[in-house]
Q: What sequence folds into this?
């Protein structure tokens, strides 16, 4: 059975703990909307928390802070980085929690996270909504970003593979940024997987993007695996950033797992939703470090989890 209760968290007095007795999730109403914790009860927080930024609010500029957030794509230094440092309106109804941000002054967009946890197990559905509350049409894509704690491995699966010459049509892009360096040893790209290692000692940022109609990203940390899934019916060309439904980024502070919906033109009053499904798994181990595994070894590690 799912319980939702008000709690204090990290210095924020107005937070909500969602739990089913196995896993717990913390959403704060003091800033955001942000989900700041997801983990097994009594266990580690898989999400990153930035020291000195937890429990604060009212900052003039956007603050990384950590956790899970909703942004606007394509990335824009002003429109994507709208501050989310004020209180949000939270409503709890029938075991579902709704967190709605005030309309952003710069964009005229209203952001909402809706969270529903399964009665048993570790499943969570997170619905991301962007509503155009402005006076002009707005072209955007929903962008869901989860900042993971340091020291783990991000894992992404490519679309189903095949053989030549039986399959001649490309299946997905592999998108680079100007700072992407495929020679960086934190990357491992194979036929079926993209793996990115998070190193707290490495300050050089890295990023790649891809597309998969059955998008999933995972993060393995201390034997626990976080998985987020997103299904899209839109073709690759409809997605931002040269066709990305998934992106991953790392620097010394954290690793991000990101999913992106297709571009949409919202007239005033219209909204778009983007749904992720999360799960947590314990006892996920490999005899080798994940970025050293073969595809067959990774298949065994990930079997039944994604």
A:
């Amino acid at each position: 059975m799912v319980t939702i209760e008000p709690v204090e968290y990290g210095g924020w007095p107005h937070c909500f703990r969602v739990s089913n007795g196995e896993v717990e999730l913390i959403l704060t109403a003091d800033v955001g909307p942000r989900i700041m914790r997801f983990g097994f009860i009594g266990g580690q927080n898989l999400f990153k928390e930035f020291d000195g930024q937890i429990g604060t609010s009212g900052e003039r500029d956007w603050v990384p802070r950590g956790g899970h957030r909703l942004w606007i794509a394509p990335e824009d230094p002003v429109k994507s980085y709208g501050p989310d440092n004020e209180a949000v309106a939270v409503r709890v109804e029938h075991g579902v929690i709704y967190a709605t941000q005030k309309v952003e002054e710069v964009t005229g967009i209203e952001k909402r996270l809706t969270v529903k946890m399964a009665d048993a197990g570790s499943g969570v559905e997170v619905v991301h909504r962007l509503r155009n509350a402005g006076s002009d049409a707005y072209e955007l894509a929903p962008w869901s970003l989860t900042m993971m704690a340091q020291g783990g491995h991000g894992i992404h699966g490519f679309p189903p593979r095949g053989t030549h010459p039986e399959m001649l049509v490309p299946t997905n892009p592999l998108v680079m940024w100007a700072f992407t360096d495929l020679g960086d040893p934190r990357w491992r790209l194979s036929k079926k997987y993209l793996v990115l290692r998070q190193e707290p000692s490495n300050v050089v940022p890295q990023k790649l993007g891809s597309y998969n109609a059955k998008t999933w990203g995972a993060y393995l940390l201390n034997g626990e695996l976080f998985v987020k899934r997103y299904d899209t019916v839109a073709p690759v060309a409809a997605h931002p950033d040269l066709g990305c439904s998934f992106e991953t980024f790392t620097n010394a502070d954290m690793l991000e797992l990101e999913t992106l919906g297709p571009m949409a033109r919202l007239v005033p009053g219209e909204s778009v939703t983007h749904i992720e499904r999360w799960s947590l798994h314990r006892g996920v181990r490999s005899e080798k470090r994940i970025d050293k595994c073969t595809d067959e070894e990774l298949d065994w590690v990930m079997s039944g989890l994604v």
Notes: The mean pLDDT is 97. DSSP finds two helices and 21 strands in the chain. The longest helix spans residues 295-302. The chain has one domain: 3-302.
